[in-house]
């Protein structure tokens, strides 16, 4: 008991601000671990673990019998293992021999991108005579009971299931969904293990079930039958079953493709059911306003009414809110979606409210290339935790060496007009930078930019999660109508074109021009990207659960 009291005394001294070495903190943690069974959930041991992570001290995968993840925090604040910056961190599971590590959102995203690039290089090494594999989800029928008996998983097996599941859902995690701290589990000797939970982003929800022995991940509609979540709405109407039997990289790509095509990686578009009473519609609108600006009130430590009064006094911001939030983006849910926020910066600090449109480039294809280049830059400087790095975006866009993939400097494309373009773009970025830091804070700014990047201004832009799904629809409609694909895809085929459209700015002008307008089509269609109905986002519906009679 004296040793336990001594270990807890170390914790109290550290929390009081006394200088305690890492070795002493770790020794106190280990003493508690040796004396108190972890399953009892000793709070002192957990708090010591949080302090250690905050200093960059993290166990190795097999430390503490490989079970340290039971009490070490999943989310915390400290130095990121990869970039070294002190940020909000998430415990990133060990896969393929990697160490357990705590990474910030940016480094987790960078790692996912590296994995995707590695998968792409592996695909490029395939026999070129073989068609590229499709990344669309494979619909499966689950095997009936009666197969071989599955042995009951050990604790370490369950941990590995969670690790793989969270990696499969990495794209949803980045798109703002809250992955659960703990998954519900079940086991059947014939069907195997099952992990399931409801994933939330704001008031939108979907159910997830993962069956590791059957190697299938199911994304399912959410149904609040008991009215436990009165503001909730389902993000899916139909179930999506994705085969995760291939390699992990291919499985992650398949889940990402399925989620992207279903609109789950973009901001949600939701409206109130037409038959809902006026008071329900009004409450829905008020709740949306509260969810947009409550983070700003917390950031400023102001009551929400005081914050809203201050916002109302900023004339240009009110004009933006009236048009973007109240009109063109009126159905966009107030969630933080990093890729949508990047599109919002590109749309409202580059393309709109600046001199860019006045100096429109010679062709829509060239303008599209520049829009993609801007979006690529903004994506690199948007973090769901830290916010938007406005200075880095400005420096990148104003860099004279900033160029398209073919080496053409962007500033040269605008000729003498670049001076005005640069001045107005810089002005917009500086204005939002000031608003972010002095008035709204990072989270409300991210929400506003996520809404701004989810309107009709950007529904045909590269950078949204639905991009490849939209392109697939354009290509399928064209080939079904008998139109020829542009060279060289008239020989390589539609799958090759779709794969290359992941980086459309690297394609030739004739290919992009074909995608935008399908030049061989007549007035009756099929439609290219500019006019295709698939560019319209999926509409979700909020129906108050107490409305059981839907008659007029």
Quick overview:
With 552 residues, this protein is of the alpha+beta class. The protein is 46% helix and 11% strand.
Per-chain topology:
Layout (H helix, E strand, L loop, with lengths): L1 H14 L6 H14 L7 H12 L20 E5 L6 E7 L8 E3 L1 H20 L30 H14 L1 H5 L9 E5 L3 E10 L2 E8 L4 E6 L11 E2 L5 E4 L4 H14 L7 E4 L5 H23 L3 H9 L2 H14 L9 H14 L12 H17 L1 E2 L3 E2 L1 H9 L11 H4 L4 H35 L14 H14 L8 H4 L1 H7 L8 H9 L21 E4 L10
Parallel strand pairs: 6-8, 10-13
Antiparallel strand pairs: 1-2, 2-3, 4-5, 5-6, 6-7, 7-9, 11-12
Provide a descriptive summary of the structure in words.
Helix content is 46%, strand content 11%. The C terminus is likely disordered. Strands 4, 5, 6, 7, 8 and 9 form a six-stranded mixed beta sheet that branches. Strands 1-2-3 form a three-stranded antiparallel beta sheet. Strands 10-13 form a two-stranded parallel ribbon. The longest helix has 35 residues. It is of the alpha+beta class and 552 residues long. α1 packs across α2 and α8 crosses α9. The relative contact order is 0.09. A hairpin with a 6-residue loop joins β1 and β2. The chain has 19 helices and 13 strands.
Uncertain regions: pLDDT < 50 for 5+ in a row?
126-146, 548-552
Strand percentage: 5-15%
First and last CA, distance: 71 Å
Number of helices: 19
Q: State the secondary-structure class.
A: alpha+beta
Percent of residues in helices comes to 40-55%
Strand count, sense and barrel status of the largest sheet are: 6 strands, mixed
Strand tally is 13
Gyration radius from CA atoms, angstroms: 26 Å
Mean pLDDT: 86
What would you call the shape? globular
């Amino acid at each position: 008991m004296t040793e336990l009291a001594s270990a807890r005394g170390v914790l109290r001294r550290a929390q009081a601000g006394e200088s305690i070495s890492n070795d002493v903190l770790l020794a106190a943690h280990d003493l508690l671990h040796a004396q108190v069974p972890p399953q009892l959930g000793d709070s002192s041991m957990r708090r010591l673990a949080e302090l250690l992570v905050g200093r960059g001290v993290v166990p190795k995968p097999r430390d503490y019998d490989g079970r340290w993840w039971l009490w070490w925090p999943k989310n915390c604040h400290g130095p990121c293992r990869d970039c070294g910056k002190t940020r909000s961190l998430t415990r990133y599971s060990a896969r393929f021999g990697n160490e357990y590590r705590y990474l910030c959102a940016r480094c987790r995203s960078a790692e996912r991108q590296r994995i995707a690039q590695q998968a792409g290089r592996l695909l490029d090494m395939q026999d070129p005579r073989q068609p590229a594999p499709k990344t669309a989800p494979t619909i499966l029928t689950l095997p009936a009971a009666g197969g071989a008996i599955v042995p009951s998983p050990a604790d370490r097996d369950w941990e590995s299931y969670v690790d793989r599941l969270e990696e499969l859902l990495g794209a949803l995690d980045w798109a703002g969904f809250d992955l659960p701290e703990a998954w519900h589990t079940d086991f059947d000797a014939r069907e195997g293990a099952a992990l399931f939970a409801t994933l939330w982003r704001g008031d939108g929800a979907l159910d997830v079930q993962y069956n590791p022995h059957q190697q299938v991940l199911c994304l399912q509609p959410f149904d609040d039958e008991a009215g436990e979540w009165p503001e909730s709405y389902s993000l899916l109407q139909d179930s999506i079953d994705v085969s995760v039997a291939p390699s992990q990289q291919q499985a992650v790509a398949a889940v990402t493709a399925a989620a992207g095509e279903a609109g789950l990686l973009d901001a949600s578009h939701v409206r109130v059911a037409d038959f809902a009473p006026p008071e329900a519609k009004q409450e829905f609108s008020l709740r949306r306003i509260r969810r947009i600006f409550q983070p700003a009130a917390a950031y400023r430590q102001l009551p929400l009414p005081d914050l809203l009064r201050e916002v109302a006094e900023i004339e240009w911001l009110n004009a933006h809110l009236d048009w973007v939030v109240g009109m063109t983006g009126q159905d966009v849910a107030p969630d933080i979606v990093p890729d949508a926020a990047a599109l919002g910066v590109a749309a409202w600090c580059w393309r709109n409210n600046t001199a860019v449109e006045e100096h429109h480039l010679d062709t829509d294809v060239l303008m599209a290339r520049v829009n993609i280049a801007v979006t690529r830059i903004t994506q690199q400087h948007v973090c769901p935790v830290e916010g938007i790095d406005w200075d880095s975006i400005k420096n990148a866009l104003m860099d004279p060496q900033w160029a398209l993939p073919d080496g053409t400097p962007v500033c040269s494309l605008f000729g003498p007009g670049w001076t005005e373009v640069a001045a107005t773009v810089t002005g917009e970025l500086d204005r939002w930078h000031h608003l972010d830091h002095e008035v709204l804070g990072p989270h409300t700014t991210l929400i506003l930019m996520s809404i701004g990047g989810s309107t009709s201004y950007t529904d045909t832009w590269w950078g949204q999660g639905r991009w490849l799904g939209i392109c697939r629809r354009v290509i399928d409609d064209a080939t079904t109508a008998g139109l020829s694909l542009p060279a060289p895809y008239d020989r390589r085929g539609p799958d090759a074109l779709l794969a290359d459209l992941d980086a459309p700015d690297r394609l030739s002008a004739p290919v992009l021009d074909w995608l935008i307008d399908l030049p061989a089509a007549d007035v009756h269609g099929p439609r290219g990207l500019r006019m295709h109905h698939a560019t319209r986002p999926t509409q979700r519906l909020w129906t108050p659960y107490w409305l059981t009679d839907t008659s007029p």
